[in-house]
Amino acid sequence: MNDEVADYLPAVEKGLHLIPTQASSHAGQVDQLYYVLIAACAIILLVVVGMITWFGFRYRAGNEKADRSSRPSTRTENRVEIAVLAAMLGVFMVLFAWATTLYLNVYRGPEPAMTIDVVGKQWMWKVQHPDGTREINSLHVPADEVIQLRVTSQDVIHSFFVPAFRLKRDVVPGTEKMAWFEATEPGNYRLFCAEYCGSFHSRMLGKVVVMEKGDYQAWLTRQRSGGRLAAIGQQLFAAHGCSGCHKAQSGVRAPSLAGLYGRRVALEDGRVVMADDAYIRDSILQPKKQVVAGFEPLMPSFAGQLDEGDILPLIEYIKSLQPSGRNKEPVPMSQGVRP
Amino acid sequence: MTTIPSTTPKAKPDEQFDDLTQQRHADLMGMWLFLATELMLFGGVFTGFVVYRYAYPEAFAEAATHLDLVLGMLNTGLLVTSSLFMALSERAVGADRKRLTLLFLLITIGMGAVFLGIKGYEWHHEYSQGLMPILGLEFVYSGQHADRAQLFFNFYYAMTGLHAMHMGVGMIWLMVMVVFTLRWRDPPRLRRQFQISGLYWAFVDVMWIFIFTLLYLLRASS
Amino acid sequence: MSDDAASSRAPESYLTHGWRWRDWLLTTDHKRVAWLYTVSITGFFFLGGIAALLIRLELMTPQGDLVSADIYNQLFTIHGVVMVWFFLIPSIPNTLGNFLLPLMIGAKDLAFPRLNLLSWYIYTLGGIFTMAAVITSGVDTGWTFYTPLSTQFTDTAVIAAIAGVFVVGFSSILTGINFIVTTHKMRAPGLTWFRLPLFVWANYATSLVMVLATPVLSATLLLLIMERLLGIGIFDPRLGGDPILFQHLFWFYSHPAVYIMILPGMGVVSELITCFSRKTVFGYHGMALSILAISVFGFLVWGHHMFVAGQSLYAGIMFSLFSFLVALPSAIKTFNWTATLYKGRLIFASPMIYALSFIGLFTIGGFTGIFLASLAVDIHVHDTYFVVAHFHYIMVGSMVTAYLGGLHFWWPKMTGRLYPEVWAKVASLALFIGFNLTFFPQYLLGYAGMPRRYQTYPEDFQILHAMSSLGAGVLAIGYLLPLGYLLWSLRWGARAPADPWRAAGLEWRTGSPPPPHNFLKPQTVSGPPYDYDTLDNPQGEAR
């Protein structure tokens, strides 16, 4: 594992940059704020150290020449305190407003051109593009496009961190979080996991490759062996033997999935549930929980065999199995997939 | 507190205090602060519950219907009554009535024991229905949102368990007070101790009322 | 006072009062309990320090070549658990505070001396138990025990470690209750609230935070233990539980805990600066109130640990605002300490050097807190070495410096001996230089993008890591030197007079070391604190 890291990282970025490369539209703005903060900090430090030095020299115990008469009264002290308080409050509020505006830009981003799914797991990053192209530990994106990342985790909390974009987002199991960025400079950039995630946390690395739009399209075409998301789902559906039972002509009795998505389903125990994303997901991972009326609970759980990155394409595939001529409106999710 | 002079000579404060009044004030303040920490302890768990109650209102309301409201109310009544007897025993010790004190104290302990008995019966009942998703036991649930309901029952056991633990501590404490009452030495000290025990018992009572409201009463109408 | 004459008539004091095992291990004298704490805390400090040195050695090179990845993770877990739970939180309150609080308010002891001893037993046994669990089973969750890593993805003795931390929490609670009641009920006649030394104010505010925040941590850890032990999945995402809720509950305690660590340090520095400026503190009321303000605002900022974890945007903005506001009282305090020097009569004894180092390091550490409160910058530097540098400037640079300064200042009072001043000056400078060399490069590393808790890192960062590791060596000298000469002074140091610094405060009005019940006769107070003008000019000359 060591050698891999040693060989791999220098290829991503070279050289020590105290201010990392500004590779997103947002990076420069954050750096400006950072410079102002440094300046403010330096001024205050200079004042404090200057006062200590000057007073220390002037009012040292041996120096009887110093004028120690007419010390400030309590009233003067209070006034000075209030003045310092007001000045600091003013400075802080300006910084607060500035920083908050920038924050809203990243975390409540503009209309994205595309959404890319990122799934973290111990200890790798799995990426899936809108057309179904998948990659591991690397993320290819076009420059000058607003990209939305939809991040989630399969196991523990990770954090998706690209210093060159000044972007970080925790990747939390059980929820999907969004992050936005617009890359400006083509090139390779470091991708770190920033939230401690177990043994090989420091090796959960990757790279972000920013390409010109045309190059990105060409790259996608090269990668496109699996087709769209639903097509991947179809492959998985066959590969994991789902089609053996759920195909209409199959010998085993299993409910047909055609037109399932968005329909109400009557269960064996008398309940009726909505067949939404959560239902399909549960049915794959915990099939015994909700058995369709009139069927035996034969289906095994796929919890160990399929991972988070496989569920999404499967759901997409099942969604696509609509009887022709009938295009369902998307159905609202049932209560609480996101706490 | 001011009336009866002590019958025994040993009415001196501990050596770090100047006088008995200072010591009594210090002891009471210490107890109140301790109860504040207890409140924060329960408060942390309650906050967690309330967060989820808001996130999954239907599932939690439905899960609550699986609890036995009658037994819950019976227990609430028992505990409130026991607090009354605890308060009476404080009055009795203030009036230097040893046997009466003992009687009220034993009634309090007895009601606490019945409370725990009923609680244990409830737990057993839930266990036999498959509503005990702890220690890897299978969770059998007939309503919707089985996983959220499991979350509800997790909180149910965490909260009632924490409370039962406090009840246990309180009962042991009161039993120690029974011994002190039998000995009847240094009445001012005994009064102080009763006051502090009474505070603790009342606190445990109040916590139960919160738990009862959160778990039993916020239920879906069936 | 000549050495021989002094040693021939060793004065009656709490130290001469019995030296059998049970005289120490069953003592209820707050001064002896303070020593028990000092010994335990020093032990834990050096244990955590060894872990830190191993971490810095590993980070000399970008590859993982000294220890394995798992061992590295265990090392920083040990370092964090020990330093936070078993050193920083109890450090000043339980050693200096325990010793000085009753002395400073003219009391014979704390209100509940037996609870005080009990709290030491809970702390020490709990601490040893936790460390045994952490080290033997190799707990590798970090000191924050984040779920679901700690509940489902590690097979080490997390339960035992958490149970240990849970138990040690009771020691904090007992100390807190004890200090609050003592401050309220046992002050000497005439010692009104606004005549209290700032050190007492600081310990009082710290105790409030301990009492109100620690139980929430207990509740959180209890839920965590239940989750692992009983399979109750309160934070389990598979049931719809929210791992971020754990972080909220955890930081609701652990952020105020930062103020538990720093407030007593502020109290110490206020005492040192006034004494060695021979002058009352600038803006006493402002100082006392800002201590209270910090402890109150400290409860409203916990969410700034979750700016990138996905709490709601508006929660993030509110927490950011409060984080800016909590910096205001700290800014006032920094200004006031500096202004106290104005028109003083400054003596640069070693405690004063520690105190002035504190101001400098606290200014840097505090202002970089403003960087982190700024949402957009925090997104970039969150969970990087920038954060590591920031909190080490506060907790080590400021807190430990204040602790050492206070230890030197009150050492004559606690032991009746003087320490060698030259060595103390050398140590205080080594500390200052070593500290900055260790941690300043980490700010640069952080903004350059170096995440924390990394065993291996890109080669380009090596130069800064190497500087940091080098500084850690100097810093170690700064800590080992005092251990050496302070122990030396116990045996060979010159006898200290009752008030070697000519300092104000009731603790100096009794012998060094004090008698068993602190004062030979009851004390009364008739004037403001830090009245150095009257002290230095008893005849009442014009100043």
UniProtKB/TrEMBL annotation, chain A:
One of its GO terms (molecular function) is heme binding. It comes from the Bacteria. The lineage of its organism: Bacteria, Pseudomonadati, Pseudomonadota, Gammaproteobacteria, Oceanospirillales. InterPro entries: CcO_II, CcO_II-like_C, Copper_CuA, Cupredoxin, Cyt_c-like_dom, Cyt_c-like_dom_sf, Cyt_c_oxidase_su2, Cyt_c_oxidase_su2_TM_sf. It is a multi-pass membrane protein. It catalyses: 4 Fe(II)-[cytochrome c] + O2 + 8 H(+)(in) = 4 Fe(III)-[cytochrome c] + 2 H2O + 4 H(+)(out). Keywords: Copper, Electron transport, Heme, Iron, Membrane, Metal-binding, Respiratory chain, Translocase, Transmembrane, Transmembrane helix, Transport. It is an enzyme of class 7 (translocase). The chain crosses the membrane at residues 33-59, 80-104. This is cytochrome-c oxidase. PROSITE patterns: COX2 (PS00078), COX2_CUA (PS50857), CYTC (PS51007). Its main location: membrane. NCBIfam families: CoxB. Belongs to the cytochrome c oxidase subunit 2 family. It is found in: Membrane. Its EC number is 7.1.1.9. It comes from Halomonas cerina. Subunits I and II form the functional core of the enzyme complex. Electrons originating in cytochrome c are transferred via heme a and Cu(A) to the binuclear center formed by heme a3 and Cu(B). Residues 111-222 form the Cytochrome oxidase subunit II copper A binding domain. Residues 228-322 form the Cytochrome c domain.
From TrEMBL, chain B:
Belongs to the cytochrome c oxidase subunit 3 family. Residues 29-220 form the Heme-copper oxidase subunit III family profile domain. InterPro entries: Cyt_c/ubiquinol_Oxase_su3, Cyt_c_oxidase-like_su3, Cyt_c_oxidase_su3-like_sf, Cyt_c_oxidase_su3_a-hlx. It comes from Halomonas cerina. This is Cytochrome c oxidase subunit 3. It holds the Pfam family COX3. SUPFAM superfamilies: Cytochrome c oxidase subunit III-like (SSF81452). The keyword ATP-binding does not apply. One of its GO terms (molecular function) is cytochrome-c oxidase activity. The chain crosses the membrane at residues 32-55, 67-88, 100-118, 164-184, 196-218. Keywords: Membrane, Transmembrane, Transmembrane helix. PANTHER family: CYTOCHROME C OXIDASE SUBUNIT III (PTHR11403), NITRIC OXIDE REDUCTASE SUBUNIT E (PTHR11403:SF6). One of its GO terms (biological process) is aerobic electron transport chain.
Automatic annotation (TrEMBL), chain C:
It comes from the Bacteria. The chain crosses the membrane at residues 34-55, 75-96, 117-137, 157-181, 201-225, 245-269, 281-301, 313-332, 353-377, 389-410, 422-443, 463-488. It holds the Pfam family COX1. Residues 24-526 form the Cytochrome oxidase subunit I profile domain. InterPro entries: Cyt_c_oxase-like_su1_dom, Cyt_c_oxase-like_su1_sf, Cyt_C_Oxase_1, Cyt_c_Oxase_su1_BS. The keyword Glycoprotein does not apply. The keyword ATP-binding does not apply. Residues 511-543 are annotated as: Disordered. Keywords: Electron transport, Heme, Iron, Membrane, Metal-binding, Respiratory chain, Transmembrane, Transmembrane helix, Transport. This is Cytochrome c oxidase subunit 1. It comes from Halomonas cerina.
